[in-house]
Amino acid sequence: MRIGLVMDADLARLDAAARSGFRSLEWMAFDRSPAAPPNHDWRPFAGQFAAAARDRGLRLSAIGALYRNPLDPVQTESARDVFTRAIEVAAHLGVRTVSGFPGAVIDPEINPRGGNPVYSVSEAHLPRLLEFWEPLARFAADHGVRLAFEHCPQGQFHLPVMGYNMLAQPAMWERLFNATRCENLGIEWDAAHLVCQFIDPVANLRRFGARVFHVHAKDAFINRALIEAWGLCHPGVAEHRWPGFGQSDWAQIVHELLRAGYDSDLNLEGRHDPVLRDHPAGSEGALAGRQLEEAGEVAARRWLEQFVPAEA
């Protein structure tokens, strides 16, 4: 188990990650890279990027294929093409896991014509989820690859209400796993999304650890004083934080991952901490933003290293 970063296929970021002591990465924004469709000659770029990472001592843990809504009919065909290509690239590079959002169904009964889409995350739409994902899972299995779903709620206040992720809540994970025979369908796990729903990450791993294929190392902080004063849906009640600045027990998280046989890495997902983050250009504190982001990355790496067994 190594500690790394999520990042785009950017050689400058590889250099910075290696200099900061990281040893793994998840290749994000795959759908916007030269290896994605409609480009046909993907092997040169994929091979060059993987070699560049390897030369810097960085292991490629997973490929983050697409984080949109594959169950939206407008996106379905292009999403299938992206995930198919990501599976082929992963197999070519020896990467075991391809990740992304599972999607959600746009509810035709409550969606106003011409208005903003309203999504349904009901169990009633589980057959639609399986219709899209099981053929891809079988294709991935034939290539020695697993599919990991990130469970980010995609709703306001870090909650699943009005979000477009059918697997934002662990109850739906259980329904999915009970409904499919595809053992290579699993979770891209993130403690922050659980904490923001008042779910204990450690207890969650005890139940689902065997289906965790990749980890986004991110934490969260719940401000109880704000809840008591203003209620759950108030800015600042739930904040994503770097590990070490949140409320999760990372010693026990690592312990439960190892107990469950977890075989991948802990890749830090940045740009979420309200203080230690890369602020957008032009915003207050933007000049120091990248320095703060790097400080958060390094602090989180050092925090996690005390719990992760050293590799031989």
Describe the structure in your own words.
The protein has 312 residues and is α/β, with parallel strands linked by helices. 37% of the residues lie in helices and 17% in strands. The chain contains ten helices and twelve strands. Helix 3 packs parallel to helix 4 and helix 7 packs parallel to helix 9 (250-259). The model has no long low-confidence stretch (mean pLDDT 93).
Main features:
312 residues, TIM Barrel, eight-stranded parallel β-barrel
Instruction: Output the CATH topology of the domain at 3-216.
Output: TIM Barrel
Can you tell me the CATH class of the domain at 3-216? Alpha Beta
Cα-to-Cα separation, first versus last residue:
11 Å
Strand-residue proportion: 15-25%
Number of helices: 10
Mean pLDDT: 93
Fourth-level CATH superfamily of the domain at 3-216: Divalent-metal-dependent TIM barrel enzymes
Number of strands: 12
The global form is: globular
Low-confidence stretches: none
SSE arrangement, N to C: EHEHEHEEEHEHEHHEEHEHEH
Structural class: alpha/beta
**Assigned CATH architecture of the domain at 3-216:** Alpha-Beta Barrel
What is the radius of gyration? 19 Å
Q: Major sheet, described briefly?
A: 8 strands, parallel, barrel
Helix content: 25-40%
